[in-house]
Amino acid sequence: MFPAGIGYDVAGVIEAVGPEVRTVKPGDRVSTFPAVSLQDYPAHGEAVIYPENALFLYPQNLNPREAVSVSTGLFAAYFAFVELAGLQPDQFVVITAASSSMGLAAIQLVKALGAKCIALTRSEGKRKRLIQAGADHVAVAGVDDVNEMILEITKGEGADLIYDGVAGPRLEELVWATRRFGCVIVYGHLGAMDAATPLPLGACFLRGFNLHPSFKIFDFTGNPKLGIRPNPAAIERAKTFVAAGLASGLLKPVIDRVFTGLDEYAAAHRYMSANTQAGKIVVALR
Asked: 73-215 in CATH: which number?
């Protein structure tokens, strides 16, 4: 809402720093990650002012278009999987909205941690793309019996972790497909805009899982306007993990389309609203 601006993702070269800045210097190539309020620091423009606590010195093997596409999704998935859920190798993770930029980043994190991914999508046409992105299994909502498929894949145990960016009515069947003492992390509410999100208390009682119904990347990076303090140690661990993964190629940018020039800004937003992309939409200045 006003007076907030828009945009959390930007990559570029630092032109100048204030006298108290210690971690970056002019000439550094950096990208941003969500750790501030858009009322204070919107990031879309030819030049932006940004605090050093929300800057990431991305690996030099990336170009700016690649760098701008990775931070939010990878940092959010790292905090959710490693810091919050303690994901272990060979555990099963269900990822909803799997073809979104957040979902594709989550698939990469799952594989990087040695776990197994069950990707959920609403489009049969995206099944092959998700397998190519690294998903071990793909379920199509409305086509496959998602609950039955998850239980079959996990040999009746249920998924160790549900990473849900949708919520809404379908969350109930995912809850029933969670293993005992598993974890459900809801980071988005796309399916709850026009419908309620039922929470089956019977499943909660029988499964005894940990439920995080409103996970935000700010829970770790901090947001002064929301009264959330950052976790500096977790942020440094995330930076180290993500930087190493990107430098080695274990983690990769996934870009759907690039629009060149600020005069293409409106076209980029129209393309995004069509909801057909698989990966990030980038606006390059040149």
From this structure: 3.40.50.720
